[in-house]
Amino acid sequence: MKTKKEKKYQELGQEDRSFVGSKLIWAWVALFSLSLATLVTTSYAWFNISNDLMVKNISLTFKNSDYFQMGLKKKDSDSDEITYFDTLDKATLEDYSSYSPDLLMIPVSSCFQSNWLNSNTVFADTTPEFRSNPGTETVATEGFYQFEFYFLSSRDAYVYLDEGTSLVPNEANNERTASEYDLNVDDLNKIKDCVRVSFYGEDFGYQILELNADQPSNCRFGGRLDVNPYDSYYDYDSHLKEILFGEYNDASKIVYSEDARVKELDGEHSTFNAMSDDKAIPVDIDKSIENGLVFQHESTKILSEFEHDDNSNQLMNPILYCPMGVPTRCVISIYIEAWDPEAILSIGRSSFDLNLVFKAFYMEK
């Protein structure tokens, strides 16, 4: 199988097969190894992570490829021809997609999802959008990996994730980085908690995987932030009112109150944890919610929700359905969710390894 990519990606694959009754189960592994470094900037965004991103071990290998392949469309081409591969590596990804090893990775958010995913959405023409700026609905054009793959199966199949899927900090590299830059390695290792992997397919829509969670965190897409300037104080507007960033229903429901003034830090300063400037009028989020303000929240699934019980014909939560012999489009995105409370400057320069293990359940629709 292969992929057409809008941004950048990385992997290594392997397959495993076993029989359960009359159903054939297979699995293959995609391994991602990323090195991320932080660069603090003055841009009006959450923050940047690295202008010298190192991506390692970018390849995708399939065994038993007579059953399954992955395809890519040639980049910068008007042709719809799909080329299928048993093995994908850096050179192939650069040739057939927008992949670049020099990616500047920046925290982005899946908020304002209804801007691109709604009743007017045409799946074939759509790739998921992310937001790069907490103050606007600006669409991110960089800072994350995104690939348009075409799965091809010799049999009707539902595609799931296997329990072997994992996202772990690259502790050895983080140890070296912490020593070199006088950082806390425990902070660097928190990168595993704010990385997301999303899947967009025609039959089962847009789904977000939150790997290292016991239950979906459903993080709130909104709040007070210290972003511009990054000075230990929540941002406020020209009317000296604190800014309530994010996606919510009605700005007229926002309540300002001295009860919400933060006079001293509770813990370490971060984008999400700051003080109220003496000149500013504080936003009271609790009273705003009582007044009818409604925030949008992230909707994620944990790994167990994407797994298939080999002893059951129940479908659970497939990523996509692949009809026999029909190229099946799936857009996979890898990004740092900017509204995750762990997505703060201290994760900068961190490294992590992402292993995606896909598993197919062969069954007619």
Descriptive report:
This protein has helices spanning 90-96, 171-181, 185-188, 285-290, 303-306; strands at 2-5, 15-20, 23-35, 54-56, 59-61, 68-73, 82-85, 87-89, 145-153, 157-161, 166-169, 195-201, 205-209, 222-223, 245-246, 320-322, 328-336, 351-362. It is mainly beta and 365 residues long. The protein has 2 domains: 2-218 and 299-362, no CATH class; 222-295, no CATH class. Strands 1, 6, 7, 9, 12, 13 and 17 form a 7-stranded antiparallel β-sheet that branches. Strands 2, 3, 4, 10, 11, 16 and 18 form a 7-stranded antiparallel β-sheet that branches.
Overall geometry comes to globular
What does the average pLDDT come to? 79
Q: Can you write the helix and strand succession as a string?
A: EEEEEEEEHEEEHHEEEEHHEEE
| Portion in strands | 25-35%
CA radius of gyration: 22 Å
Task: Provide the helix percentage.
Answer: under 10%
**First and last CA, distance:** 21 Å
Number of strands: 18
Keywords:
single chain, 365 residues, mainly beta, 2 domains, seven-stranded antiparallel beta sheet, 5 helices, 9% helix, globular
Chart the SSEs and their pairings.
Blueprint: E1 2-5, E2 15-20, E3 23-35, E4 54-56, E5 59-61, E6 68-73, E7 82-85, E8 87-89, H1 90-96, E9 145-153, E10 157-161, E11 166-169, H2 171-181, H3 185-188, E12 195-201, E13 205-209, E14 222-223, E15 245-246, H4 285-290, H5 303-306, E16 320-322, E17 328-336, E18 351-362
Antiparallel strand pairs: 1-9, 2-3, 3-4, 3-18, 5-8, 6-7, 6-9, 9-17, 10-16, 10-18, 11-18, 12-13, 12-17, 14-15
